[in-house]
Amino acid sequence: MAQNAHHEAAKHHEAAAKSHKTAAEHHEKGDAKAAGKHSEEARGHSAKAHESSTKAHGKSTGKH
Asked: Phi first, then psi: what are they for 29, rounded to 5°?
């Protein structure tokens, strides 16, 4: 079970990183609207990543 939880957390961390990178690329191009959209997506993925990481840690340590 803990392995699946870690994979889930990694999936969200990777999605957040991708959205952050895309936001940065849009900022570099001067497209603030698209950058803001991707920044918001990144924030959502980051929140899910944090939640998933907390659950994975709990499963790994036995502290659900």
From this structure: -85, -5
Q: How far apart are CA 30 and CA 21, in angstroms?
A: 14
Residue with tokens 């952050």: 20
pLDDT digits (tens, 9 = 90+) for 15-30: 999 999 999 999 999 9
Does an H or E element contain 5, and which?
Answer: helix 2-28
**Which of 9, 22, 14 has the alpha carbon at shortest distance from 58?**
9
CA distances from 55 to 10, 12, 41, 50 (A): 12, 13, 21, 9
